[in-house]
Amino acid sequence: MRAFILDSFESTPGVRDDVPVPAIGDHDVLVRIHASSINPVDAFTAMGALRGMVEYRFPVILGRDLAGVIEQVGSNVSRYRVGDEVFGWLSKPALQEGTYADYIALPEDEFTAPKPASVDFTEAAAVPLAAGTALFALEALALEESDRVLVVGASGGVGSFFVQLAAGRGAHVIATALPEDETFLRDLGAAETVDRSEDVPAVVRERNPDGVAALLDLVNREPAGFAANASVVKAGGRAASTLGAAGDGVPDGVSATNVMNASELARFEQLAELIDTGKLRVPIQRSYPLEQVGEAFADLQTQHTQGKLAITIA
Known about the structure:
The chain has 9 helices and 18 strands. The chain is an alpha/beta fold.
């Protein structure tokens, strides 16, 4: 089979077509992968940037998100049948088998759920990691109707899903953006935008003298930057980071938390329902074939992205 592989920390990842199709155990399923997507963590993995945080078991097949069809089932599998369409993402303590490949073997009770029926494989594969993270952030911020929430980094994968989820709850979404993002973000439900090249806290504070109820920061990796944005949150409000930046410097009275996704069946089912009921749509900016995953990594790091970058495999 084909797979996009990182052979070592010193090598450049690329596609090989001589990779054995994985064997399945009694409780496993073999998924024929039709699509995946690009997340920042995938690019960081390819660069070796997670060295010391997770174990690399070379050769590493890259990729986390997936959508595909069950092609084989183990003798003790009861949850799936051959032909079932699934989607999901991998959250394993060690990196080895990934989703930028024609096939993957997975335990029947981990990492996947039935695919949303209303979208194709490419759209489904762009959902799990980014939209799941957005859903966790929504819950952490406990938004209520009419709450004002500042979203820093709103136009990317997680941000584009979070804007929709927050607006769906009736929140007033203030999204940081480039001028060319205005229409895109308003179509997703943003009530207003702030040019990200300006002093965002100053602009938000001027427009909202009493402060905002919540902050989601998808950009800052350092506590100082996160704390600067959290300065606009009023006492009793909440602030969340997806990059581990919630820490020192947050104003007194503001609850700050670091948000992480988890690969859970219930979460996937919730996302599928949101998509199939029309409450969440999948914004994909571009799609790349498996052979161009390296180009997609480069585009994610060097070009401005609206929504997700998808990978088509079969």
